[in-house]
Design brief:
Distance between the termini: 42 Å
Number of helices: 7
Helix content: 25-40%
Oligomer: single chain
Length: 242
């Protein structure tokens, strides 16, 4: 996601607002869209602005930052990063699903760490949303681009700098790509990396024998470290989890 992350600063202290606004302007992937002196003003601005994250003070007159969080469900508000001089509110803040908690005075290095955390969360959400919409990808083979539908993939095997994509009816496709890059493109609800060299389609699994997954006539060893987690993820059957 290349679009800048839009930010709104809410604090009743002018110097605190100015400080955070300056930090936002110094961070290339952030964009300041406004500042507020109170949570009541924040509610008004949210109706007219497109905001990805609120930098929210806790102790403010009339309506505190915590009261604002209690009044607005998580799914109906932007990400929230609390900024306050009082660390004792940290636990309650996290219980209200805030992304981070900055204790004043806030250094630029600490602010930047929080900003990168925000960037990763938004990028991850963006990828998940795109994966829900996508049903295929294209791979390069020699001088052509080949369309591979997700539903036809049985498994993908890493061969150093290449991968082999085994499909159900069209055979094997070999392309210059890392397994990690392929994993990023596939919907996580349907595909699972079971060891360092294999990604499998959950729907293609025919059986599991010990620490091996069977797909057609292929036996794929499961990572010993995460064997039970992988089996649970593949089966998704409650009667196996007694």
């Amino acid at each position: 996601m290349n679009k800048k992350i839009t930010c709104l600063v809410v604090d009743d202290e002018p110097l605190a607002r100015e400080g955070l606004a300056e930090y936002i302007k110094r961070t290339p992937f952030l964009e300041l869209v406004g500042t507020c002196e109170s949570a009541l003003e924040l509610i008004e601005k949210l109706n007219s602005l497109s905001v990805n994250v609120i930098f929210l003070d806790i102790n403010m007159p009339e309506l505190s930052g915590i009261d604002f969080l209690r009044s607005v469900p998580t799914e109906k508000r932007p990400f929230v990063i609390l900024n306050t001089a009082y660390s004792e509110y940290a636990l309650e803040g996290y219980q209200l699903d805030v992304l981070d908690y900055l204790v004043k005075p806030i250094s630029f290095s600490r602010f930047l760490k929080s900003a990168h955390k925000l960037q990763k969360r938004i990028d991850d959400a963006y990828k998940i949303e795109n994966q829900k919409l996508a049903t295929f990808f294209f791979i390069k083979i020699d001088n052509r681009l080949e369309k591979i539908n997700f539903e036809e993939i049985l498994f993908i095997e890493s061969k150093r700098n290449y991968i082999e994509i085994q499909t159900e009816k069209r055979g094997v496709f070999v392309t210059y790509l890392t397994l990690q890059k392929a994993e990023e493109e596939l919907p996580k609800k349907d595909f699972l990396r079971v060891q360092k060299s294999f990604i499998i389609s959950k729907n293609a699994v025919e059986s599991i024998e010990g620490n091996q997954i069977i797909i057609k006539d292929k036996k794929i060893a499961i990572s010993r470290k995460n064997t039970q987690e992988i089996i649970n993820e593949v089966t998704q059957n409650s009667f196996l989890k007694k």
